[in-house]
């Protein structure tokens, strides 16, 4: 729906203090822009919050309410709606269209949820929100958030809600009203001022590869605090990073493992994220959402950390479980060829070894037709013989790996079994 100049909040009075999170700060109208039309609720004037006034009367600022009271403006009836269903249908009603980038949808899902949550909280009820003696928390029109009861959320919208459901925001330690509008510019962060989202420029941020948490920090102030729900979702063990035979340095040399606590706990899905030293947490795609492990890459010469959490069938997320930071390094020149004659000085010179301090080490080599075999010695003791011959070629493949429970110092040596056969050794991959 087109923007109405009479309801344009861009010229709101200076007396409207954003930190007070009044209704006048809510945001959006259906503005049509290049990629999507966003319905952006706007109000003609700030709606006061009566001291101590309450409707739904929710008291938790860490767990969202179970229901919300919605005024159906056409019928005049007040309807109690499942809160998660309400958020999904608001997004599907045009506020955050499914075709937007995933990071935009995740940002919008959180903003939609916290806006409604704020007004469902005890003490935040607007005193005029009463119809026929019944109080309500929000309207179904653009005075609050557009809510069409017949709207059908897509899987992408549900996914965005799932990912951010256990999250709420704090500013200066306070739970606040999350405002948003369509905006008039399309450059990432150009209209950010610390108090509202502007969907048009948010979409540009998402196109640039920004995650939802980075977007939120930009638009709601860098000192924004993220608080995850204390709801009793399934607990998860700390993610463990190991090296596994068969993995490729190019596609994911490490395997990350975890398990629910207790192991028999019913889990609907897991969420795994990775953080590289100095960066932000980013999702690691899971081929099996209910699986307990996945292959993943770790950045060489930088500390990589993983965290994981679980969701139960009721939609409750448990807390993040954090694994230790792991530093990856490669030892030995890439493409080194082990060759020579067994038992000669030349052969001895071609043996490759490294001494390292850490928890995991892998031998990386080429596999394929016509390749030979190698011996692996750890601390002077032969522990494995590895045949590198395969029907198909494999480059930079982990052909042997060892993981220890504790950090220690070890020496690993690689020798050819038959010096007349070719062995292409790429190097040692070490996790400290």
How would you characterize this protein structure?
This protein has 432 residues and is α+β, with helices and mostly antiparallel strands. It has three domains: 5-228, no CATH class; 235-326, Immunoglobulin-like; 332-431, Sandwich (Jelly Rolls), CATH 2.60.120.260. Helices cover 15% and strands 34% of the residues. It is built from six helices and 28 strands. Strands 17, 18, 20, 21, 22, 23, 24, 25, 26, 27 and 28 form an eleven-stranded antiparallel beta sheet that branches. It has a three-stranded mixed beta sheet with strand order 4-3-7. The protein has a three-stranded antiparallel beta sheet with strand order 9-8-12. A hairpin with a 2-residue loop joins strand 25 and strand 26 (381-387). Helix 2 crosses helix 3 (155-164), helix 2 (102-120) packs across helix 4 (199-207) and helix 2 (102-120) packs across helix 5. The longest helix is centred in the first third of the chain and has 19 residues, at 102-120. It starts with 30 loop residues before the first strand and ends with a strand.
């Amino acid at each position: 729906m087109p923007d109405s100049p009479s309801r344009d909040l861009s010229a709101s009075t200076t007396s409207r203090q954003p930190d007070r999170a009044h209704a006048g700060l809510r945001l959006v109208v259906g503005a049509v822009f290049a990629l999507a039309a966003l319905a952006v609720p706007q109000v003609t004037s700030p709606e006061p919050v009566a001291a101590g006034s309450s409707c739904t009367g929710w008291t938790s600022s860490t767990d969202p309410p179970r229901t919300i009271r919605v005024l159906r403006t056409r019928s005049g009836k007040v309807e109690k709606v499942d809160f998660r269903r309400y958020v999904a249908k608001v997004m599907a009603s045009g506020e955050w269209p499914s075709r937007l980038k995933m990071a935009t949808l995740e940002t919008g899902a959180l903003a939609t949820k916290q806006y409604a949550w704020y007004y469902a909280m005890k003490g935040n009820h607007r005193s005029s929100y009463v119809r026929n003696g019944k109080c309500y928390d929000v309207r179904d029109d653009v005075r609050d958030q557009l809510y069409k009861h017949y709207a059908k959320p897509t899987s992408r919208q549900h996914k965005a809600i799932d990912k951010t459901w256990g999250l709420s925001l704090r500013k200066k330690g306070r739970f606040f009203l999350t405002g948003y509008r369509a905006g008039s510019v399309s450059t990432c962060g150009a209209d950010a001022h610390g108090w509202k989202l502007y969907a048009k420029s948010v979409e540009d941020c998402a196109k640039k590869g920004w995650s939802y948490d980075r977007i939120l920090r930009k638009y709601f102030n860098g000192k924004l605090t993220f608080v995850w729900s204390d709801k009793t979702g399934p607990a998860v063990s700390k993610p463990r990073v190991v090296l596994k035979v068969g993995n490729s340095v190019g596609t994911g040399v490490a395997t990350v493992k975890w398990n629910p606590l207790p192991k028999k706990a019913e889990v609907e899905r897991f969420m795994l994220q990775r953080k590289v030293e100095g960066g932000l947490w980013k999702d690691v795609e899971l081929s099996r959402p209910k699986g307990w492990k996945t292959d993943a890459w770790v950045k060489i010469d930088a500390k990589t950390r993983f965290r994981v959490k679980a969701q139960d069938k009721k939609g409750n997320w448990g807390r993040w479980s954090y694994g230790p930071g792991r530093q990856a390094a490669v030892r030995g020149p890439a493409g080194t060829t082990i060759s020579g004659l067994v038992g000669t000085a030349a052969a001895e010179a071609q043996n490759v070894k490294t001494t390292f301090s850490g928890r995991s080490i892998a031998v990386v080599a080429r596999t394929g037709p016509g390749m030979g075999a190698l011996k692996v010695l750890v601390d002077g003791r032969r522990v494995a013989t590895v045949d590198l011959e395969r029907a198909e070629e494999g480059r930079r493949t982990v052909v042997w790996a060892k993981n220890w429970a504790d950090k220690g110092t070890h020496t690993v040596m690689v020798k050819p079994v038959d010096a007349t056969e070719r062995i292409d050794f790429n190097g040692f991959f070490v996790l400290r």
